[in-house]
Amino acid sequence: MQQTQARCNLIARTSGEHCHDAPQLMLGWRGAMDYEFTHGGGRLVLGQAAILPSGEPHSYLGRQDECEVFVIDLDAADPCLASLEESCTLDLRESLFAEPRTLSLPPTLLPMVEFATAQVKAANDEKRVRLINHQLAMLFVSQFSQLVDDRDMQAMQRQRLSAEALNRFIDQRLVSPPDNAELADAMHLGQSQLHLLCQRQFGMSPQQYVMNRRVYWARHWLRHTQRPIGAIAMDLGFADVSSFSRAFRRRVGYPPTQERVRAD
């Protein structure tokens, strides 16, 4: 299992291409490193950072012998991350790690990078290393989440999602409900922008919105048709009646059969 860890990675003049099974934060520290994502890229120097979701292929090229990058590898199942998400009402997969991106760090964060690298290099026993890894991971994840939210919010001050367009697209895909990437493409947005707009306008994540739309149609068909519940479940993209019934009950508070009884 990938462990949450902070490390200083000496790149020097090496190059390569790979991807990771877990999310990663990369911060410029010494020298310069060029990198490319599937879409986009940049140069990592002090004051610049990159966010890599899990499974994102990327290439790198060190420009100087002293090129060194500060890296934080994140275990998606780390209970510390789960606690951070719960306490700060975050969904890191749909916000910070929704897509690869670059960040320019404000000057106030540069001393933090220096402090972090010094702490990593000074750690000399396993217990201290584990403690520092989690402290730095929480510190930078929270700071980066705030930076991403602030930047996206500024860019979206005049943007609004069209509920009509969103509903129309979801309704065309009820049998195979769209994921966040497909929703974002249809709305001509980045995934993190889509997430923020959904939260701001509707008070829910994109996938919660999709599920609510599916339940809307379930209630409509249960009330106004005699279609079998199994057929409704299949037409709404559920694997079976049981999963449909569980999702319906979570949203509505009672099973689909009771919806039909109420209609009568």
Automatic annotation (TrEMBL):
Keyword check for Protease: no
Domain of life of the organism encoding this protein: Bacteria
This protein's UniProt keywords: DNA-binding, Transcription, Transcription regulation
Gene Ontology molecular function: DNA-binding transcription factor activity; sequence-specific DNA binding
Family matches, as PROSITE patterns: HTH_ARAC_FAMILY_1, HTH_ARAC_FAMILY_2
Name this protein carries in UniProt: AraC-like DNA-binding protein
Keyword Lipoprotein: no
UniProt domain HTH araC/xylS-type: residue ranges: 164-262
Membrane-traversing stretches: none
Origin species: Modicisalibacter xianhensis
Signal sequence range: none
